[in-house]
Amino acid sequence: MVRAINRKLLRDLYALKGQVAAISVVVGSGIMVLILAATILDSVSLSRDRFYHTHNFAHIFSNLTRAPEIVFQRLEEIPNIAALETRIQAQVRLAVPDFEEPVRGKILSLPDGEQPLVNRLYLRLGDLPEPGKPGQVVISEPLAEAHALKPGDELEAIIRGRLETLTITGVALSPEFIYQLGHGDLIPDYERYGILWMNRRELAAAYDMEGAFNSVVLTLQAGANQEMIKDALDEILGPYGSVGAFSREDQISHRFLQDELDQLRVMAIILPAIFLGVAAFLLNVLINRIINTQRQQIAVLKAFGYANSEIGLHYGFFAGLIVIIGSILGVLFGLWAAGGLVGLYAEYFRFPELSFRLQPEIVTLAVAIALTAAMLGVFKAVAGAVRSPPAEAMRPPMPERFSRGWFDLPFWNRILDQPSRIILRNLSRRRFKSLMSVLGIALSGALLLLGSYQFGSVNHMLDTQYRLVQKMDIHLVFTDIVPERAGTELLVLPGVHFAEAYRSVPVRIIHERIDYRTSIMGMEKDPALRGILDQNHAPVSLPPEGLVLTGYLAEYLGASPGDLLQVEILEGHRMTLTMELAGVVYEPIGVGAYMERRALNRIMREGPAISGAWLLTDQTRHHELFQRLWESPAIAGIGIIPRAEANIRQYIEDTVLIFMGVLLIMAGSIAFAVIYNNARIAFSERERELATLRVLGFTRVEIAWILIGEIFIITLAAIPLGWLLGTGFAYAVNQAISTDLFRLPFVLDREVFAFSAAGVLVATLLSVGLISRRLRRLNMVLALKTE
Amino acid sequence: MRRQNNAGPPVFEVRGLTKTYTMGEVIIHALRGVDMELFARELVVLLGASGSGKSTLLNILGGLDSAGGGEVKYQDQSLTHAGEKALTEYRRNHVGFVFQFYNLISSLTARENVAIVTEISNDPMTPEEALALVGLEDRMDHFPAQLSGGEQQRVAIARAVAKRPLVLMCDEPTGALDSRTGIRVLEAIEYINEQLGTTTVVITHNEVISRMAHRIIRISDGRIARGEENPSRLPARDLKW
C-alpha cells in the first residue's frame, strides 16, 4: 500500500513535470560532462598503460652511428636492466601502388623471425617475417589502413638508393609508435609516413650494418636509477656516435601522448568543476524555489500532524528523485558521448584496443555532489517553511513586506505606471531572489560563451601560424649537412620561385633543473619565409648572437631574456655550451629555439653549412617537383605545409572542438532549463496577483507584461554578467589546455558574446512562449478562491 | 422575482440561468435555472450555504465565468454571449469586486493599489477620494503588510469603487475578519451604496449580514429558494454576531 504522502510525491513530480525535466537536464548535463571527461581520460591512460605493460615498452633509448655487436656484452653488464635489445633503424622511402606522392618511413630490425624482447609488436594481421626469407616486412597499422594494404601485398622501397620490392607479411602496432609521427611533423600523416619492421640480417645487409647496431632500447628493473643507467650507456656508446640516452619523457610518441593526457586531465577537472558547480548551484536554487511555492501545503501537512522531519524527508525524496533521474540521464549520455569521442582519439593514438569502463567512483562522486546541492536547497526551503505555525495555511496569506525604492522619486512617479512599479518593487523587494535568478541565467550564458569561444580561437591560431609564421609551402630536410651553395641549387628545380636555407641542430636546453630536447633552427636575420613574431604578432629580427625561444618554452624552462642557458649539442661532437637567452618569440603551434644561422655555424665550429630549406613554389608544378626531389638521395624529408595545416585543423576539430561542441549542447540545455524554470516559478509566485488583476479588468496583454517584463529585466541584467563569468571560465580553460603542440590564443570575438546573449534571449523567448500558454489558461475564479 | 417598489429598469436581468461543471466523471449542476433582477441603488444580500451556487452566480454576474444556459443581461447588453474582450471591458469599466481574501497587490501601497484600477478606467475618482470614502485617508502610503485585515479589505473596497462602477460585487467580504472589523467593513460598503448609489451584491452565509440589505435572496441547490424585501433594515453598525 503506497502511503498517501508518497502518492503526493509522485503526483507532484508529475504535475511539475516541465520543471522536473528541466532540472534533470541541468543535473544530467553537469554529470555528463564529468563522466565524459573522466571516461576519456581513463580510457586513454588505461589503454596506454596496458599496452606499455603487455608489450614491454622501453624505459631508456639511445641512438648512435654504428657500434659493433661485441659492445652488447658491455651493455649487458650495466646493473638493474631487465631487458636489453640492440637493433638497426634506418630511414626509408616507399612507393605505394596507386599513390603518387612519396611516402617516408622508418624501418626497424626484428630479431630474425622473432618478437623483440623490448617494444614487442602487437600483430593485428598476418605474421612476423620468416627467418631467412628476404624481402618480407611488417608494416604499421595506420599506414596499412591509409593505403588499404594487407598481408600479401607488395611495396617498393628505396633502401640506400636501391629499389627493392617488399612483401607485407603482417600489420602491427608498437608501444613505441602509439602516436606515429614523422620527423618534424606535429600531427600524424598516415598516408605519407609509416613504420616498417624487417628481419635484422636482411636490414643489416641492406644498410651495411652487418655485425653492428645503431639503436639500443632497454627496460629497467623496479627501483633502478635511470640517470645512472643513462650515464653508463653514454659512457659506453659515446665513442660510437651516441647523441645521448634518453628516457620515455623525451620519446616522441610518449611525450605527445603524455601531453595529451595532461591536457585531458586538466580538462577532466576544470570543465566538470565548472559544469557540475553551476549545475549544483542551479539545482540548489531551483529546488529551494519549488519548495517555497509549496509553503501552504507544508503548513497543511503540519496541521495534520506530520513532523518537521517527515516533511523534510518528503521533499528530500522529491529532490532526490529528480537528481536520480538527472544522474541516470547524465551517466547514459556521458558514456555514449565518451564512446564516440574515445573513437576519435583512437584515430590519433593507436592502441591494440581501447579499454573502456564505467568508473563507479566517478559516478558516485557526481551523484553525491548533485544530491548534496539538492539537499541543501531542500533543507533551506523546508526549514523556512516549517518555522511558521500551521494555522497560517488557514488564514489568508500575509502580504509580503515591501518598501519604497529609488524609483519612488518624483521623476519616476511621473514615468512609471502601476504595472511597471509592480515589476520594479518585485525585483527590488526580493533582491536576493532576483540576484539568484540573474546569477543563474548569467551562469548559463557563461557556459554558452565557454562552449563557443574556442571555435574562433582555433581559426585565429591557425591563421597566425600559417599566414604569419610559416610562410613557405614546402619544407625540405636534407640527409646530411651541406654547404650553403646547395641552397641556391634548389632554385633550378621545377616550379621553385624562392628558396631559403636553414641549419638545424638537435639540442637539449637546460635551465636550472629543467631541460627540454628540441632543435635550434639557424636562419637568416630576417627570414623571408619564416616569421618571427613578438607578443603583438609584429615581425622582429633575430639578434646577431644568442638564443631566441618560443615564449611557451622559455616559460617552461623558467628563463627570461638575459638568463644563461646550458645548451647540450646532440650532434657530431657532443659538447655543452652556455648561451644567453636573447629574446622570446610568439608562436601558437610547436616549440622551438632560433638563432642567426651564421652564429649557429660558428658555435658548431663549421663553415656556412645548411641542413634543410624552405621553398615557395608553383602549386601546378608540384607533381614534377616531387618527382625530382624523390629521385635525389640528398633529400631526407619533404614537408608540405598546407597539408600540415589541414592535418592540424582536422586534429583540433576531431578532439578539442568536438568536445567543446558537446559542451555547447550541454550549455544550451542548461540555459533553456534554467530560464524556463525561472519563468515557471515566477508564474507560480504571481499567479494570484495576475488573476486578481484580470478580475479588475486588466487584459491578458497587460498582465503578461508584468510577468514577462520582470523576466526580461532579469535576462537583460544577466547577459553582461554572463559575459564576465564566461570570460573567466574561458580564461581558466585556455590556460589549462596550453601544450607543446599548440596554445590557443585567448581571443574572444564579438560573435562569441553575441552568441551567448542570443542563446540566453532565445531561451527566454521560448520560455515566455510556454508561459504565455499558462497565462491564457489562467483561471480567475480558482486563483481567487484558493491559497 | 421582482422588487415591488420598482425603481426604473433593472440593472441585471437573469432568465433561466444554468451552469454545470464537470469534475472528472461527476457533473455538478451549480445553477439549475435562476431568474432574478437587480435594480439600481439597491443593496442585495445573496444568502446561501456553501455549495449552494451563490459564488457561481456572482462569478457569472461579474463576468468571471460564462453562463451555461439561459440569459444574463446587463443594461440591455447580453453577458451570455459576450466574448473574452467584451467581458474584460465589462469588468474594467462597470463592475467593482471585493474578495474574501482582499487580493491586494502586496508590492503596491494602498494609494497605488487603487491607482492600478483608476489608471485603466474611463471616469474614475482619484485614489485619494476613494480611500477617503472608506476612511483610510491617513493610511494611503502604507503597504498591505503594514495594514490590518480590516484596513486591507477597506482598501479593496476603495479599489473596487474608484472606477465609479454601477455594480459592486462582494464575495464573503467579512469571511476572513473578526466581527468588529467585519462590521467596520460592512459600514464602508453601506456608505458607498448610500453615497454613490452603486448597486451592491453581497454574498455570504452569515444570516446576520442580511439584515442590512434592501432585499434578501436565498439560494439553495442552484435555485432561488426565496426572495424577500427587508422592510426593517438595520444599519451595519447595529449588526451583531
Structure keywords:
heterodimer, A: 787 residues, alpha+beta, 4 domains, six-stranded mixed barrel, 52% helix, 19% strand, B: 241 residues, alpha/beta, Rossmann fold, six-stranded mixed sheet, four-stranded antiparallel sheet, 10 strands, globular, disordered N terminus
Set down the secondary structure blueprint.
The complex is a heterodimer of chains A (787) and B (241).
Chain A lengths: L3 H12 L1 H38 L5 E9 L2 H6 L4 E7 L1 E7 L7 E8 L11 E5 L9 E5 H6 L7 E6 L2 E12 L19 E7 H8 L4 E9 L5 H12 L8 E2 L4 H41 L2 H9 L4 H41 L11 H28 L22 H6 L2 H12 L1 H39 L4 E10 L1 H5 L6 E16 L2 E10 L23 E4 H7 L6 E6 L5 E11 L7 E4 H7 L5 E9 L4 H10 L3 E6 H55 L4 H37 L13 H28 L2 H6 L2
Parallel strand pairs in A: 4-9, 6-8, 14-18, 15-17
Antiparallel strand pairs in A: 1-10, 1-11, 2-10, 3-4, 3-7, 5-8, 6-9, 7-8, 12-19, 12-20, 13-14, 13-16, 13-19, 15-18, 16-17
Helix pairs in contact in A: 1-9, 2-7, 2-9, 2-10, 2-18, 7-10, 7-13, 7-18, 7-19, 9-10, 9-18, 12-13, 12-19, 13-18, 13-19, 13-20, 18-19, 18-20, 19-20
Chain B lengths: L9 E14 L2 E14 L3 E5 L6 H8 L7 E6 L2 E2 L5 H10 L1 E4 L11 H9 L8 H7 L15 H13 L5 E5 L7 H18 L2 E6 L10 E6 L2 E7 L12
Parallel strand pairs in B: 3-8, 3-9, 6-7, 7-8
Antiparallel strand pairs in B: 1-2, 1-4, 4-5, 9-10
Helix pairs in contact in B: 3-4, 3-5, 4-5, 5-6
